[in-house]
């Protein structure tokens, strides 16, 4: 009997590593290595089959005699210990007991995950091995696709950000400004539009060169960002032209204070490579409350008219648009 068991075990270990050889009283005489792995690495030898496995179907099977009578039928079992892995099986009579060969059925992927199984845990001819290779290949392909999509998403975001950003100053550009104005014009919140043009900027470029001019523009951008809120939009729309959009700000006194604070800071000397750059700024403002509904193009044009009114007054001034400015321009 011992030689017969050893011979059977040697064959079954290779052909079906998820098997149990049972005695006539249901004692496990031998179990395959993969099945032991499912039971936390311990051998099942000497255990009672019906204490290790819960036989769900066919019902009312409580003995080896019942198993032998069900030879060839599909068995539905579950491990009694967590994670209660579901199994399929088939029994064949052996000596006075039985041999039960087990598999995972459609729960194979859960079992591989729960018990860290590899292809070495299955017979070489088991189609499960082929499926694991396919699943691994699919997982690798999906991971590669996920990483590619992340890179593409990052590149798209970067491209969109670049498309809306002035490369020299890091401010929003004219395209971004148009988007902001369209959104605010269709919403319920009033806003102010300030058009800023630098005074004497051409003299900086002519006397100190374009690197100095670029430095001045970057300093101006920094000042404008510092003097506005995160919810405001600061954009560069031309060589030395800037537009500020201030949502929720339509009080003339408050806006006049902001404009004069900016003008004061722009009049401070800007050092550059041992030289000093001197500029100032003129500002014109239009308010959305004066339009029904607000028209971004008209507001831009009217802020421009107010800006040139400031320049006519001697530069470094702030002016609000008035209907008379438009009449005078025509």
UniProtKB/TrEMBL annotation:
Domain GGDEF, residue spans: 189-323
SMART domains noted in UniProt: GGDEF
Gene3D superfamilies from the UniProt entry: 3.30.70.270, Haem NO binding associated domain (3.30.450.260)
InterPro entries cross-referenced by the UniProt entry: DGC-Regulatory_Protein (IPR052163), GGDEF_dom (IPR000160), HNOB_dom_associated_sf (IPR042463), Nucleotide_cyclase (IPR029787), Rev_trsase/Diguanyl_cyclase (IPR043128)
NCBIfam families: GGDEF
Protein name: Diguanylate cyclase (GGDEF) domain-containing protein
Species per Swiss-Prot/TrEMBL record: Lutimaribacter saemankumensis
